Amino acid sequence: MIAKFKGTCAVCRKPVNVGDEIGWSRRERGRVYHAACIERETPASPSAPVASPAPVLDPEQLLQALASLLKNSAVVSTVESSVECEPAESDYDSTVESKPAPAAKTTVVSKHRKLDTNAAWYEVLSAILPVSNRVLLVGPPSSGKSTTAMLSAETKHRLTMTETTSREDLIGMFHLIDGETRWIDGPVTVAMRNGDAVLIDEIDRYSPECASLLYSLIDDKPHVSLPTGEFVEASDGYKVIMTTNESVETLPVAVQDRIEVIIVASTPHEAAIADMPDAGRDVCMRYYKVQPVRALKLAPTVRRMRTFYRLLKNGIPNEVAANLVFGAQGAQEVLSALTSAEGN
Length: 344
Hints:
This protein is α/β, with parallel strands linked by helices and 344 residues long. The protein is 32% helix and 19% strand.
């Protein structure tokens, strides 16, 4: 069949471009191959040529590859009646007639396959960003949390918390410019005014000075009072994406409760290891997969229950939504309790 979307060949790891002749496996969750590469999925004969190593990408190419991958796998809001389970043949072959769209209903729909509990964390992030305003990414260094967040949210507002971070670093400060004292907004204030997303790295390392301010920045109705006397309320579209390498339990309970969704980014983004040979990728992924991941158990507070039902309303499957809101361990208890309550 003919490719209608860009992607990456599952065999040679080289780009698949629109118009290329490809093979596609529904059984293997949508893996795409160049037509010439399909035979290489079976054991090669003694005379078969050895595959050349994957090309080495420089940092700029790697960033472009990551942006392209996110764009192709993004989850978008569209008119549909349910979450799309798997790519239809018409996604890759223009000769297959598309079925007419069902009755209109706004949901979040995956372009490629159903969002399930086995979906990669960066696919989950793309899926929930349109319907969640306070997201925490938890995972080891080098998993691509910050880069993926900035590309997924299309934002340039970013800051890193440290023990010495001041309120001014977040909301802004007075500057002496041409002999005049002028107020200059900080990254969070700019994001609030413009309705943008802002990335806050190392959220668990915030200073005591920023503790109370943080509550208002990630509140249900985010706001900030500036030293100028101005009261700024966040415009529609304002989101806070936070990252941490530590456990969620290091955050105060009040901060935990304000976080709507927690995503465990325990393995590297596939674009981050795309320039490695197959053996290198396997070794790297095995290292991350054996690292302990603590199962979270978060209580069904008012905020979390509201978030859970909002995700369901926007097409996120029950189990996925529960894991994101209550943690892997808490999800099972909440879903069991809901099932019991609905049965009674």
